[in-house]
């Protein structure tokens, strides 16, 4: 029925019009609502950026306070969701658990499907970080903490993670500031795999919770958000292997090896990823401020230099992406490796929400790609006895 364009991976398909994030892959430019990522990462707080993405403008102090307070008011998770979390094995991957817990929010908060999406938005921003810390507490055999509404968003997350219940805990401002920067850098990235998933699921008018849960699952894959965990595992493997970066570069170039240099390459950025530039500097700053000497930083830097001087990577315009150095910072902050992608999800949440809202506000039609059929032509049914 008519002419269908074939575009596997949607490399050349603009599936929507969007006023949220501008990305120029040739020039390495990223802006949220017109503001450069460099300035936002340097000067804003994560909640300010969340407000900007979701509402279109930077908040005034009064608007920001009221947004932050509305989020704090939702920072108590329904008790039964704790039970759902406890039913998950502690060996399971935390991305699986948070996708399920976010999916379950529909059953607890939106039974009739009539919850005001503005309420769902506040609950998600308030509760995703809380639920994410449960997996960690379970993994180390500690009880969970309650939100401390006297703290800012990032500091409260750190308290939820690292405070041993019953004892006192002091948030290190260096750690909190670094986390703020990382979350801002992850907050939106136009029509990537997980965001497209959120929009596609939402286009059927599925609930915000259902759409975000789908987005979390899409983010989990190693070619997308899961790359940050894979990068550290790769760097560790290289370290254990005597630090032979050349061997891994050779493997990445060999198409039969099945190995890719994790944290390298990007569908859209073909000169550099501006987020990677900021993160690389932040990694140096944070590690020295915290007095952490992580040997994988040296391996990362060596690998980067080797790749940037190699014809294979140069010809294909493969550069370090956001995930290449972020894990090194997360590790210095004390976040366990298999929670790196969870941190990405917490950062990306406002972007997913903004994109979902925009899609609904613009009354976009249900997403429904076409195909080029390559199967059998018509044939007669064969009775089972005759097959
Ligand atoms: N190592 C080795 N070769 C690579 C790599 C890599 N990391 N990335 C791409 N290539 C090669 C690829 O084999 C292909 O070569 P050829 O033209 O000879 O067939 C060429 O470069 C183009 O690659 P592609 O797979 O067609 O490009 P894509 O736009 O479909 O994929 C990507 C982009 C990010 C999935 C890919 O570069 C990749 O797998 N990178 C490693 C995983 C990663 O770091 N992902 C995080 C992406 S950024 C943040 C996020 O999305 O979460």
List its traits.
387 residues; single chain; Citrate synthase; 17 helices; Citrate_synthase_sf; transferase; Citrate_synth-like_sm_a-sub; citrate synthase activity; 3-stranded antiparallel sheet; mainly alpha
Describe this entry's structure for a reader.
This protein is mainly α and 387 residues long. It is 56% helix and 3% strand. It contains 17 helices and three strands. The chain has helices at 37-43, 46-55, 61-73, 79-86, 94-109, 117-139, 153-162, 173-186, 193-202, 208-220, 227-240, 245-253, 274-290, 295-308, 311-315, 322-332, 340-361; strands spanning 21-24, 29-32, 35-36. Strand 2 and strand 3 form a beta hairpin. Helix 4 (79-86) runs antiparallel to helix 5 (94-109), helix 8 packs antiparallel against helix 13 (274-290) and helix 13 packs parallel to helix 16. The longest helix has 23 residues, at 117-139. It is globular, with a radius of gyration of 22 Å. The protein starts with 20 loop residues before the first strand and ends in a 26-residue tail after the last helix. The model has no long low-confidence stretch (mean pLDDT 96). The chain binds carboxymethyl coenzyme *A (CMC). Carboxymethyl coenzyme *A is lined by residues 9, 192, 223-225, 227, 252, 260-267, 316, 318, 321-323. Carboxymethyl coenzyme *A binds at residues 9, 192, 223-225, 227, 252, 260-267, 316, 318, 321-323. One of its GO terms (cellular component) is cytoplasm. It catalyses: oxaloacetate + acetyl-CoA + H2O = citrate + CoA + H(+). Pathway: Carbohydrate metabolism; tricarboxylic acid cycle; isocitrate from oxaloacetate: step 1/2. Keywords: Acyltransferase, Transferase, Tricarboxylic acid cycle. The active site is at 266, 323.
């Amino acid at each position: 029925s008519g002419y269908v364009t074939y575009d596997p991976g949607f490399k050349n398909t603009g599936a929507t019009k969007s006023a949220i994030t501008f990305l120029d892959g040739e020039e390495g430019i990223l802006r949220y609502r017109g503001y450069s990522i460099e300035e936002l990462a340097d000067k804003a707080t994560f909640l300010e950026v969340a407000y900007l993405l979701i509402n279109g403008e930077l908040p005034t102090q009064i608007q920001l306070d009221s947004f932050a307070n509305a989020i704090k008011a939702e920072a108590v998770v329904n008790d039964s969701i704790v039970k759902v979390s406890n039913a998950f094995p502690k060996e399971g991957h935390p991305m699986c658990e948070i996708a399920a817990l976010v999916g379950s929010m529909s059953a607890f908060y939106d039974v009739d499907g009539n919850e005001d999406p503005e309420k769902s938005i506040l609950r998600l921003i308030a509760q995703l970080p809380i639920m994410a810390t449960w997996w960690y507490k379970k993994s180390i055999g500690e009880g969970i903490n309650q939100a401390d509404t006297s703290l800012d968003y990032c500091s409260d997350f750190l308290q939820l993670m690292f405070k041993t219940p019953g004892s006192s805990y002091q948030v290190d401002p260096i750690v909190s500031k670094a986390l703020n920067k990382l979350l801002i850098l992850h907050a939106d990235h136009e029509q990537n795999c997980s965001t497209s998933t959120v929009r596609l699921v939402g286009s059927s008018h599925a609930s915000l919770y259902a759409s975000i849960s789908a987005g979390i699952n899409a983010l989990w894959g190693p070619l997308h958000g899961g790359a940050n965990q894979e990068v550290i595992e790769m760097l560790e493997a290289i370290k254990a292997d005597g630090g032979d970066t050349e061997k891994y570069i050779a493997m990445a170039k060999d198409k039969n090896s099945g190995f890719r240099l994790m944290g390298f390459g990007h569908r859209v950025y073909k000169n550099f990823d501006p987020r990677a530039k900021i993160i690389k500097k932040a990694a140096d700053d944070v590690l020295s401020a915290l007095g952490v000497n992580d040997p994988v930083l040296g391996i990362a830097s060596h690998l980067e230099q080797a790749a940037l001087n190699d014809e294979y990577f140069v010809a294909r315009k493969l550069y370090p992406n956001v995930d290449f150095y972020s894990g090194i910072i997360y590790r210095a902050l004390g976040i366990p490796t298999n929670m790196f992608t969870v941190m990405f999800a917490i950062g990306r949440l406002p972007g997913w929400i903004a994109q979902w809202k925009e899609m609904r506000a613009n009354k976009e039609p249900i997403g429904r790609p076409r195909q080029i059929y390559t199967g059998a032509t018509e044939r007669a049914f064969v009775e089972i006895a005759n097959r």
